Amino acid sequence: MTGTLLCFGYGYTATTLARRLLARGWTVRGTTRSADKAAVMRAAGIEPFLFDRDRPLPREAFDSTSHALTSIAPDETGDPVLDLHAAELGGIGWCGYLGTTAVYGNHDGGWVDETTPLQPSIARADRRARAEAAWQASGLPAHIFRLAGIYGPGRNALVNLRRGTARRIVKPGQVFSRTHVEDISATLEASIERPRPGAIYNVCDDEPSPPQDVIAFAAELLGIEPPPELPYDTAELPPLARSFYRDNRRVRNELIKRELGVRLAYPTYREGLRALLRVECP
Question: Are the CB atoms for 101 and 111 separated by under 8 Å?
Fold first, then answer.
């Protein structure tokens, strides 16, 4: 199966998915707000378009487009992709919306799955929940992917340690779910092959873990001492970073395995970091 994918917001995950699809003979288009990035995309074989709420796409962006993926966050007005281009997307066969597991809110470390009622505790998660609802009500063949914390090449604990920016913040009982970008892309590919409009999928690995454990394991792989543990209550954290610790939950991923046949390449952070060590720190 091949087609033409239009990526709204050609970012980290879209880049990884595009590489996989290009190798299979797909045509990939992507949007950006930067002319400089558009040039980089074009050099990589991606057809670029400039897009934001004040700069809608031209009709040619949708010519022969068969699939669409959006990772653009909603703003206070709503979802800019739906607001500007719902009509043009009406004829495509698959839409993917990259959301976040933050829509579940806090569960004091308890497990959540796709049937868990949403109770977002922060404004940006509430906007995400409302955007999900808008996509589900749009009449488009929407598939919602609730992503856990994303890591992968260039964006991981090994890199942070080598840059000297890694911190071991300890909040007793706190865990986070995470997912390797390649496993996200594999899940998206599987959904494209097995579309079910209206579907919602959690995308995460098998082991929600305390963040300080991930840093300690990465330091062990690098053969260095991990940074000291810092109590959450007294650590100096910017408001955005502190807000991530407000919610504590464990996210289940059984549905992508059972329905889409996904087999995680990196079922825990250990496999993911070991593979990244071979690439980034040879």
Answer: no
Q: What residue has token string 């979802």?
A: 79
| pLDDT, mean of residues 145-149 | 98
Work out the average pLDDT over 105-125. 97
Query: What span, in angstroms and rounded, lies between the C-alpha atoms of 81 and 70?
Result: 8
Cβ contacts of 189 within 8 Å, gap of 6 or more: 17, 20, 21
Amino acid identity, position 175? V
**What are the tens digits of pLDDT across the range 57-91?**
999 999 999 999 999 999 999 999 999 999 999 99
3-class state of residue 261 by DSSP: coil
CA dihedral angle for residue 63, residue 69, residue 75, residue 78, rounded to 10 degrees: 70
Cα separation, 89 vs 268, whole angstroms? 36
**φ, ψ (nearest 5 deg) of residue 229:** -70, 140
CA 161 to each of CA 27, 57, 157, 166, 216: distance values in angstroms, whole numbers, following the listed order: 37, 40, 6, 5, 10
Per-residue pLDDT band for 282 (boundaries 50, 70, 90) equals low
Question: Measured between alpha carbons, how far is 92 from 69 in angstroms, rounded to an integer?
Answer: 11
Residue 152's closest CA among 17, 240, 275, 44? 275
What's the whole-number average pLDDT of the chain?
Answer: 97
In whole angstroms, how far apart are CA 250 and each of 111, 204, 241?
4, 10, 19
- Residue 178, H or E segment: strand 178-180
Which two tokens mark 171? 């909040």
Q: Exposed e or buried b for every residue in 215-226, given b needs 16+ CB within 10 A?
A: bbbbbebbeeeb
Length in residues, the chain: 282
Spatial separation of the C-alpha atoms in residues 112 and 106, rounded to whole Å: 10
Its pTM surpasses 0.90: yes
